[in-house]
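Review session, final week

We close the course with one last complete record, chosen because it touches almost every idea we covered. It is ABC transporter substrate-binding protein, a protein from Acinetobacter populi with 614 residues. Go through it on your own first, then we will talk.
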Amino acid sequence: MGLQIRFGQLLAFTIGTTLISHAYAAVQTFNYISLDAKPLYAGASVLPYANASAPKGGSIVLPATGTFDNFNSMNGKGSPAEGVQFLYDKLMSSSLDEPGVMYPMLATSATYDPDKPKYVIFHLNPKARFSDGSPVTAQDVVYTFKKLLSEGAPGLRIYFSEVEDIKALSKYDVRFDFKSDDNKEMPLIVSDISIFSEKDLKNKDFTRVTMQAPMGSGPYLVDKIDAGRSITYKRNPNYWGKDVMVNKGAYNFNQIKYVYYRTLDIAFEGFKTGQYTFQTEYVSRRWATEYTFNAANAGLIKKIEFHHHNPIPTQSFILNSRRKPLDDIFFRQALTYAYDFEWQNKALFYGKYKRLQSFFDNSELAATGKPSAAELKVLNPYLNQLAPVVKRGVLIDWKYPVSDASGFNRYNLMVARQMLLNKGYRYNPQGQLLDKQGKVIRFEFLIHQDGLERTLMPFVRNLKKLGITITVRKVDVPQYIERKKNYDYDITTDVMPQSLTPGNEQARFWSSQSADEPGNYNYAGVKDPVIDAVINRIIRSQRREELVTNTKVLDRLLRAGYYQILTYGKGADWYAFWDMYDYPAVQPKLGVGLNYWWVNPAKAQKVNQYLKRQ
């Protein structure tokens, strides 16, 4: 104990000296972590998008689809339960206004070199407590990360692959050593992981599916579980972190409940009758035409469009290049001509979507026009390694094929047909497309959502016009998750969110290593050494401008490889809710900030009276 005290005193002296002489020393102590930007709220007592006086009470009920069987979301097993994030605190908390900026949570500060982070030391808040009242210590942080590195989901191991060592320097100081000093994102990455209790987990099998949530230090506790149907969390009245700056005005609901439905369409019927109270809407037809039910007509449903500043989530058709003939880039390229966005947007989407032209659409990270001089400087060493079709694709002003919106897509299908013939594909007398070995080409399009066929069928019909035999296979959610986890599909759909500060997660999405690891996110099976090299450049970018340039190059390579057919999206999120909630007048830029909303008692009473009469 005495050694710990003396070390803490020495560390405090060292930190103080570093702060005084920061102009001469690279290693400094900060009450934030930032990639590049100077944080806006490092000296704030409350965030501008929070109401510190927000009342506590009431509940919010949210929908989920499928089922759940695992409260350990970090081991990659089973179907993780919704809402487990409310059980845990992290070392730092992300700003909803500033990309790549984090503020204190379990840690009060961090000591590191922001330009060359070979290590980072987090100084934990001595007041931090797990839900049983025991302190959160440096040893708990060490235990958590060593568990994740040895027994966590495969994708997490890639994500933390740059971590060389973790050790407790004292009871409240923990040090992460990295394999190199040129990955500026590593301090943020390790800041953003839920911390478990060693005492709680040391006698449990971390790798098993469990319906008992590991103990956390977060603002909520598990209250009720109706297996496979619903989960209710209750606000922890003894939550240690209620006065931490990022938490002031947050976590105002006494209860957060998730109700499970088989499909989103069935869930919407539940929303209309008040079974849940907050809806994120994904379907343009429903948004435009179906909010006319009784409660909406009575003025009890509120709709908002939140225009965010993030990349639009990448919605796409995944082409599994592990399988023939999808391993042929020319075949994949031909398939892009069968997708008719212009007609769909007019006939099905009420003109509310845009065609995605980038994996980072709606942001400065999106590659537009021809490559800039900075992009060409990155690309030039790799151009000779690229296939001619990819080389051409990365150098042009990229645009996906455009139709005349007539619904026939005749010209684009003629182009696709000729491309296939030019590359050695042939047709039999029945008009079926044959591969280069003379076999009929057959595909299965794997989905799990009801109603998705409506948006898929135009593409399916166009593929059939090209002579491709394709069936849409709808399976239940658990089977879908398992098949997707094991890359057991020809074509499927995906919606992949992207960050304004891309980094290590790109290796999980696109690297050659992740393509061979079940349970990772490289659904298309991308295996390209040039893409691997550019991902490495992204991870090791030293300045924002460098990060943006490298990301644009990755964007060009992914598009030119035709691994996915990007479909549609929007630069806004659609929300509908029973009008019983209020939120701060100032909204954050990067998310709707639902954690900062609260129940308005007068509005809630009006809603409850209405529901009782129904």
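Two points worth writing down before the exam:
The chain is about 30% helix and 20% strand.
The longest strand covers residues 59-65.
Good luck, everyone.
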